[in-house]
Structures
1.
Amino acid sequence: MRLHNDLTRTLEPFTPLVPGRVTFYNCGPTVYDRIHIGNARNLVVADTLRRYLRYKGYQVTFVQNFTDVDDKIIRRARQLGIGERELADQMITEYFQDADALGVERADVHPRVTDHIPEIIEHIAALEALGFAYVIPGDGVYYRVTRKPDYGKLSNRNLAELQAGARVEVSAQKEHPMDFALWKFQKEDEIAWDSPWGKGRPGWHIECSVMARRYLGDTLDIHAGGEDLIFPHHENEIAQSEPVTGRPLARFWIHNGMLTVGGTKMSKSEGNFWYLRDVLQRYSGEVVRFYLLSAHYRKPLEWSDDLVAAAKSGLERLHNAVHNLRHLARTAERAEASDQERDLLADLIARFRQRFQEAMDDDLNTALAQAVLFDLATECNRRIGPGASRALAEEALALFRELGGVLGLLGSALAEEESLDAEIERLIALRQAARKARNFAEADRIRDQLRAMGIILEDTPTGVRWRRA
RNA sequence: GGUGGGAUGGCGAAGUGGUAACGCAGCGGUCUGCAAAACCGUUAUGCGCGGGUUCGAAUCCCGCUCCCACCUCCA
């Protein structure tokens, strides 16, 4: 598999440090609010990469943090009149509801900053001992960027360039404008912990350095996040980690592109964002996930209702193919596959599994992988019809399950049949009787009635088939 | 000012040297009692513009135009 490594800005063959095992850290949300659809893209991309690596046979250890203390959390908690921990707890609960809807699996560890204060202090002390930290009284402990000759290697810029375009407020007391806080001293009655430098709380970047190391070791195989985290967040993580461990923080840096609205980046500060929760009122998590994977992860992706609606139609095509196969499996008169069917199946599996893997191996080309699923659907629709054996239909379904599962899609369509309630069963039977009596007006009336109840009927050569709208 | 990314049919989106995937939308047809679903056909002689290299370029080179992101919190 090849992945685009943002550290080298090239496509590189991916191999983990320890054969067969992958350590993977994704920068998780700051839990001061519900996540928006842009956050969702990062979650889905990281989750999909994780699933694919597992599919390839790697044992993946996936860690994603919660940033549960920062300015925004403190401000929000005050507005609401609750504690920071309480707010964070609430938002973490909300987070899991949203992530679950998207089919994003739980990380192996979801560490929280406030549970790792001693390790953070220890790390800052280590930096200080190495001459990478200094105190600004009344302000905080700062990182000394000029002490790191390769500072800027991830974002591909040097201190002179950074300084030239700096929009950051330059504190008169900072040695360099790019120096950043490792520890912020307590102001007023802000939440704070004791430290050798005084009461305060961690700076933004230090948490990831510390928690990634705590759970995954000095060097991660993959560190992911949104591309807007490249600078300063990930640059600063590297700056903090590498002097202490003496090792590269991560071997592969993977960043997803931004979601856009009207061509410009979606962001909380701009206000042009949609909460995932609200989007999920209109579209299923699967539709959202499918849309988020419909473009390559490193490209910007426009978010609009029309585009998502079109994706929903496309996904329905895959669902229909699955429903067709399930109906065939259910109604098949023959259990065992014929020789001819076995050949067909072997051909389908060989071709589509390979094409799918080639797509995913090429820097996680999920758009192409989806196209493979569409082609598979067409092939199944064309070549597996009435008269097919149950074995053939079920094996084709297994292929959908395998490939769809890597993308985190099609789970519900493939799931065991929920039973219809008796009233609906009765209406379907009534309509069948009406059709048999060639009372089509009555049959159509019942079909419309069921349609209004969210049940779509389709008459096939092997009997009536229903699906949910 | 610096650093990157991008412009592909009506819409979205793959494709980085061999003659334009895939999805949506549209149109025509087959099937159907009618539908739905599905299938078949059809919709870019051309991939921002102008040059160049090559037997051959959306893909490489040069120039130009426009757009976006990052350099501040952001996924």
2.
Amino acid sequence: MTPPVFAHGHLRLYLLALLEEQPRHGYELIQALSDRFGGTYSPSAGTIYPRLAKLEEEGLVTKSTDGRKTVYEITDAGRAELDARRHELDAIEDDLTDSVRRLADGVRAEVNDAMRSLRAELASAAREAKRAATRTPASDAGAGGTANPHVDSNRAVHEADLVLNEFRQQVRTDLRNQAHRGRVSSEAVNLLKARLAQVRADVLATFAER
Amino acid sequence: MTPPVFAHGHLRLYLLALLEEQPRHGYELIQALSDRFGGTYSPSAGTIYPRLAKLEEEGLVTKSTDGRKTVYEITDAGRAELDARRHELDAIEDDLTDSVRRLADGVRAEVNDAMRSLRAELASAAREAKRAATRTPASDAGAGGTANPHVDSNRAVHEADLVLNEFRQQVRTDLRNQAHRGRVSSEAVNLLKARLAQVRADVLATFAER
DNA sequence: CATCGAAACGCGATATATCGCGAGACAGGT
DNA sequence: ACCTGTCTCGCGATATATCGCGTTTCGATG
């Protein structure tokens, strides 16, 4: 789903660069990376430790245990490797800021999907909990009820979710298409805002009528 | 912030009950608990392993290593403890379903806060990234330029995103509030759909006018 | 019986390490 | 140039364990 943040071998070099600044233990490197990405990207342990093991195997770093921490230190061979490829490092740094942006953009979209599934799960969990709660006391009556307004209501809400999402996506696309020609004014936004408020009010009114 | 899910000593007993069903390793217990909560609550390793260590210390379970796994098995003493407090277990089970519901309710509220701060961070990160991106190419020229249509356009689009999202959240909430009273008909959804299509058309029209 | 302090407890954060998948790089043949 | 199998690499998931903070429990002491 999410594309790799670091290209082939870039993480290796970047870790070396971080270790050149000062000796660090694994967890510290994870945090250091997370910091540079403003928390947007946190490399997992499964990414860092195998790389460190490899670097040690190649003799570019040495590890030493300090309490429950495993501190890694760069060796002369490591510094040599780093010097030889110093120019690549700048390019990596540039790619990184790019990756951050792409990640941030991706998150915006994914959060919505996550929200959807979260809400769906929550709703189903709530239903389940309610069933469980109502089962115990004294019920399970009316099992043959053909026209359950709740079922219809839930179906309608689900449909509405889809409608809302589609609308939102469409308008977002519309606006972006216009935006890169610099044609989206704040008046247009105000219009949108006002119209949406009106729609909401109208929809709410249909409920009040009953 | 979040209140404990398990009351004092309840986790201990619950783990024992899970181990009575079958021998399990630590991670498996975490997953088993996460399953019973429908993924809403996942006990952390820092919760499980100290408890297992304690149970072993008390002689209620034994551990045996199997590859990189540490399998825990209940002892006769453990079964005795469990028999002696079997009645408490039912009460715990009840509390649990309660906790799940409270957690789910809590999540609903917290997700909104989280979304808000996430959005704020994202927005600031995006601004930062944009600054960084515009600095490099060949610009900072129109530093005093008061009216850059692209900048304004992007700002407007961003604003529109917020408006769209707020609207979507509001209507979703509105519908759900009505839905659990079974008052959301498919006509209401159709109304919504039609009105939104109209709004989109109107917004697009303002661009065509230029 | 109240209260106060130590021990127990729940839990997120810290810390380390391995496994297996999928995507990409790369050397070799054709 | 163009496949093709292998090898590397990034990474989430799996797995274990400890630390320190805040709260709750519970027995001792007054």
